[in-house]
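Bench notes, afternoon.
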Amino acid sequence: MRKSLGVIALVFTRILLGLVVAAVPLLTAPSASADTLQFTLDDTTTGDVYSWQADRSPVPPVIEPTIGSSFDFANITGTKNGSSTCFADLTFSNPSNPNGAGIGSNPDCPNGFFGPLVGSQLYTGSEDAPTFLTGTFLLSDFETTDNAWSLTIAPVSAAVPEPSSLLLLATGLAGLVGATRRKFQT
């Protein structure tokens, strides 16, 4: 009787260990964070689309704040019309800035340059501890009111396991259970 209880405990332990080992990749798989935002800037007159990602609440030293006016991101990479590009500096400003609230790109990376755009303030909090707003914002070229730009700031979607990954996990678990049952029968 004791021997069969020992075998059952061993089998149960192996099954439990197998489940834990099988679940670890699912629990540790890298996925997009809700704290990461996707920025998509669309020039409705030319059709150019700029895109990059940033943290919802960036903290120094990622940004260089000018308290009461603006903060900068240095060397952001992204895309322009789907091709990789850089933005030497992205400046986010509030209404107290001489250019007004909005966003601007430094021309040191000419492929990523879109100039100063004004309209809505795109963040809350102070410049040394900002939190980006989400939504779609209409922006204009500096000193115009054309609203020719649309900026969408949205959370990056979390990764969802593919059905093939789940099938692979289920097959591995079935094999583990089968091997354990075979060992238990012998």
